[in-house]
Each structure stands twice: as structure tokens, then as C-alpha cells.
């Protein structure tokens, strides 16, 4: 429950950013109030260029959520299609997909994303692509294992006996029954993607300034870590709370979807 | 009369020399070994046998549902109106499955998809095979639910499988299997998981629907009482082979194979204890031989009370005692 509340809050923040933010995140830069400590005027303080940190965090939620959701959507689609076909069709295709999955899993996703970013160049779209193609292996593996156990169930066999084609069975019989674990993995993956985006932005390969992103804010705050700690603490907290919210949502979702722990009928 | 029927309609399904083997690490399991039989239009044919006798594998072979590459149909033909189902492409086979030959399974509790309403599941089937619109197919599923005597079918069509009892679910399975007017219904132990009273209801229902839909039924069961009730002809299987086949009266009144006799003797009789005292039930000693190490001669030889020396060494051929009654036993080989 807590997880869903946090996640919804962040989504709400991202959607209504222009209404909620007290200042413009980029244009309202005033060097006269640079590196101000948190006060009534600037709740979270200001950064080295005098921009309101609260406003930048609120706008930064848009980038983080966009990256988290879109890249994970891409991952889920790739993972589901590969995992479903590998588990269901088997034979050489299964070997090929599983080989690919193992290779993907053996490369740290940050390193892989870095390599793609180096190839494509920095930028938000490229971050989405890089993250969207690096983290599908977990979804793929979970999907495949779920397919392997589900396809042995009687109603899948019955569907075969009733003359349903492979694609029809995959999408109408198997997929709806395994969507639970895939959703759980997706929430965790989205959280992971937000972290990696922050890391990429921190390294200067992600979202480019002056667009506010939580990772980018952390990166620029490095030099004032001791003189003005609020510049780095608040974006860090934002990342921490969002990722925590998504992870808790994943846990909650799993409990909800598992009939043994769910209280619904 | 039985005979003239056969001549009028011919064989709807003709299984010839079917051999289905499973290749495993332990060797080759001959799950179905040279099985031949036919099924006429409007007929109910019963296949009986113990667990592991190859009944279900025979059914799955007809439907081409043997899990490859583990299992393989190595020999034989399955003719539906003269077309060999084992030779046609899988895509054409899928048009036949559910449409012309339908199948219901043993476990009604798990044979329905838990995530969709039963109405949706029957509709899906109708859409797949009959190309009806969404609305027409929904009407069809309500109509089918009514045919299988589910009360207030319009309402029940919106129910999920977990809201139905086992007997109701099996009715839904039957509704689904019959929704496209199949010519043949293969029922693989359809009543095993049900209460005895529900069993009787389901069997009655199947018999009534068989007449309504003019279908033939291949009934697979180990319940001899069910067979006696509904089948016109019976096949007795043991360790992958047919050991005796004939019409239902012959098999029950005049069984020739020692295994069939022993099977019939093993049925406990109601009221027996009060008339002849407390006696142990009759059992067939020993177990079904492993399919990996079948005896060279008769596969029933190790458990047979009438075994002769020849049974151990020589493969036993099927002997026709009369045009409909055939038995695989050395005792009748000289006749």
C-alpha cells in the first residue's frame, strides 16, 4: 500500500509539475540567491546557479519516471516476446534465446548502457533506447520459466486438443496466467532503470543540462557536497524514495496477485 | 443388427497398427504397440485397462498430441473417413481437432482457464472453428450451457471456473467439446475425478448429447461399470496391446482372455458379504510389467493363472473367435 501511495505521488508530481513547482526549474536562476540553505522561500534550498531545488526535483520526476516506465516497457515487451516463444516453441529457438539471455546477464547493465551511450551519444532518447535494450533478460528468463510450468497445465493441453494454434494458446491461455510475476519484475526493473539513468546523468552521458534530472543534479552538486549539502541530499532522497516506492509496489503487487497471500476472493 | 449398421455407415474412424513409443533414458517404452480398431458412426466404443495400459496414449496419438520428441508415433494409420490424420499437416490437423474430433479430459478442475469466464471460453472455441461473430458465439455458448443442463445459463456464462463445482466444470468442458458439432468425442476418463452421483449424471448427459449431436464416442476408462452402461463395443488393453475386443455383451457375459476374466472378477459385488461372508476381494497378483522390459511372449504371462510354456516365449497373435470377438491368447490359437 505504502509503495503504491509513494509511486502515485511521484506520478502525480510529474504530471502536474508546472502547477506544483513554485519556480521555473531552469529560467528562474538568480545568482544573488545561489547556494541558499533551505528556507521558507526555497524549501529545499537553491543550487550553485540560484535555481530552486524543489522545483527542479518536481520537474526531474518527469525525466526519471519517463525513463523508468518507457525503458521498462521496452524491456518487458522484448522479454515477454522472447521468453514466451522460447518457452513455448523450445528446440533451437529456446537455446538461442537462452544463450543470448545468459550473455546479457553476464554484462553489468550499467556497463552495457554506457557502451550504447558511447555509441549513440548522450541524450534522453538514447538513454531510453540504451536502457530499453539492456534489461530484458530478467523478464525473459522469468517468462520462459513460467511458460514451461504453465504449458504443462491441463487447460493449456485442453486448448491444444481443441485445435487452438500456437500463437492463440501463447497469448490467450499462457500469457494472461503468467502476467503477475512479469508485472512484479517490471516494477523492480523500472526502479533499476531510474537508478541507472541517474548514474548515466551523473557521468554526464544521460540527460543534458539544463534539463533537470535527479542524476544530473547530483553530478553538479558534487563540488558543494560539504559547503552546501542540500544540493545533493534532496535529489538523492528523491531517487531513494521513488525507487523504494516502486520496489514496495512490486512486493505489494506480488502479494496481491498471489492467491495464497491475497485477501480478495 | 449391429452388423448391418456397420455396413450402412462404414467406419468413421479406423486405427490401423498404431505404435507409439517413448524414447527415454531408460530405453524405449512401447506405450502403444500395434493397436487396431475402428469406430462406427453413432457408436460408443469403450477402452478399458489399468493405469499404464496405453489407453490415454492411444487417444493422444489419434489427436496427435503426443509430446515430441520424447514420444513418437512410429507406425500405423489413423483414418478419419479414409483420410490419414497422421499424414496431414499440423495446421490442417488443428482444424480437425475440436471441430470434427473433440476431446475431454480427466481433470475438470484444472482443464478450464482460471482467468476467463466459461462463456468466454466456449465463445473462443466457437470463434476459432466456426467463424461466428462475438455476439453469435456468445449466444452459442449460452445455448451449449443450456444443452448440458446448467441452470440459468445466461447468468452462469459470466461465471469463472472457480465458481463452479467439479461436475459443473465437466459439463462446461463437454459443452465446449461439443460446441462445434464434432463427429467424434474422445472422453479420457471423464468421470474419474467426480462423485459417484455426479458421475452418473455426467454419463447420462453424455449419452443424451451423443444422440442429440449424432456423434460417436470413444470412452476411455478403467471403470467397467461405466462401460457396461454405455458402450456397444469394448476394447480391453493391457501393457500397450489390445488383449480382447468384442461387443459389450460378449465381453461381460463370455470373456475369453484370462486378463478380462480376472478384471471382471475383481469388481466387488454389492451385498456379497451378507450372503457369502467376509471374503477378501479378488485381486490380480503382481503388477503391470514395466513397458521397458515387456516379456517376450504374452505380456500378461507373469500374472496369468492359466499360463502355459508357450506363453513365455512366443509372441501371441490376435485370434478372431467370431467376426466381432477377437482375443490375444495362446489358449485359442489352435481353434
Walk me through what this model shows.
The complex is a heterodimer of chains A (265) and B (335). Chain A is mainly α. Chain A has 11 helices and no strands. Chain A is elongated. The model of chain A has no long low-confidence stretch (mean pLDDT 82). In chain B, helix 4 packs across helix 5 and helix 7 runs parallel beside helix 8. Chain B is globular and about 65 Å long. The two termini of chain B are 26 Å apart. Mean pLDDT of chain B is 84; it is low at 1-9. Classes of the chains: A mainly alpha (265), B alpha/beta (335).
User: What do the pLDDT scores of chain A average to?
Assistant: 82
**Radius of gyration of chain B, whole Å:** 21 Å
- How far apart the termini of chain A lie comes to 18 Å
Major sheet of chain B: 8 strands, mixed
pLDDT averaged over residues of chain B = 84
List its traits:
A: 265 residues; mainly alpha; 11 helices; B: 335 residues; alpha/beta; 8-stranded mixed beta sheet; 13 helices; disordered N terminus
Mind sketching the topology for me?
The complex is a heterodimer of chains A (265) and B (335).
Chain A: H1 2-15, H2 17-20, H3 53-89, H4 91-106, H5 109-120, H6 124-132, H7 136-150, H8 154-161, H9 166-202, H10 214-220, H11 230-257
Helix pairs in contact in A: 1-3, 1-11, 3-4, 3-6, 3-7, 3-9, 3-11, 4-7, 5-6, 7-9, 8-9, 9-10, 9-11, 10-11
Chain B: H1 2-9, E1 11-24, E2 27-40, E3 44-48, H2 55-62, E4 71-80, E5 83-84, H3 90-96, E6 101-104, H4 118-130, H5 134-147, H6 153-156, H7 166-178, E7 184-188, H8 196-213, E8 216-221, H9 224-230, E9 233-238, E10 241-247, H10 248-253, H11 258-265, H12 272-276, H13 309-313, E11 319-320, E12 326-327
Parallel strand pairs in B: 3-8, 3-9, 6-7, 7-8
Antiparallel strand pairs in B: 1-2, 1-4, 4-5, 9-10, 10-12, 11-12
